[in-house]
UniProtKB/TrEMBL annotation:
UniProt KW Methyltransferase keyword: yes
Family annotation (InterPro entries): HIT-like_sf
Protein's UniProt name: HIT family protein
One example of a Gene Ontology biological process annotation: methylation
Listed GO MF terms: methyltransferase activity
Organism: Methylopila musalis
Record's keyword annotation contains Transmembrane helix: no
């Protein structure tokens, strides 16, 4: 059963991969090309409240996620933001950062916050076509576990 944060970020339409403990979804608003949300599926509103199994699974997710995003976006840096001010479920905003603009599916992606903190309110909102294309591309680049 998806939690409120997963649903807010478009689950299941935005889903790229999920495990017993985590959901990896395309972030519909893209402050950096390839932005994702990584949402814990356990009922927890504090990072330290996650189970040891969720922490172990997080390492496996990140080990696949970063190389896939690097191949797709050629990011210069990657940021993981755990803000949880509006959405209480444990989750990260995964933001590939890029100094120069990127293009994908007919959209331009400029990292408006570069070189400072990500500008989460900036960037294009993906339409259904761009969202499906980005999901498919990341899934193709992310090897099966």
């Amino acid at each position: 059963m998806p939690n409120a944060t997963m649903t807010k970020f478009g689950y299941p339409e935005t889903l790229i991969r999920e495990t017993d403990h985590w959901s990896v979804q395309v972030r519909p608003k893209q402050p950096g090309f390839g932005a994702l949300v990584l949402v814990a599926k356990e009922e927890a509103s504090a990072f330290g409240a996650l189970s040891p199994e969720a922490f172990a699974d997080l390492g496996r997710i990140v080990a696949g996620l970063e190389p896939a995003l690097k191949r797709l976006t050629a990011y210069d840096k990657i940021n993981y933001l755990m803000l949880m001010m509006v959405d209480p479920d444990v989750h990260f905003h995964v933001i590939p950062r890029h100094e120069t603009p990127r293009a994908f599916a007919g959209l331009a992606f400029t990292d408006a916050g570069w070189p400072g903190p990500p500008a989460l309110a900036d960037g294009p909102v993906l339409d259904a076509h761009a969202l499906a294309a980005l999901k498919a591309e990341i899934a193709t680049l992310w090897p099966a576990a």
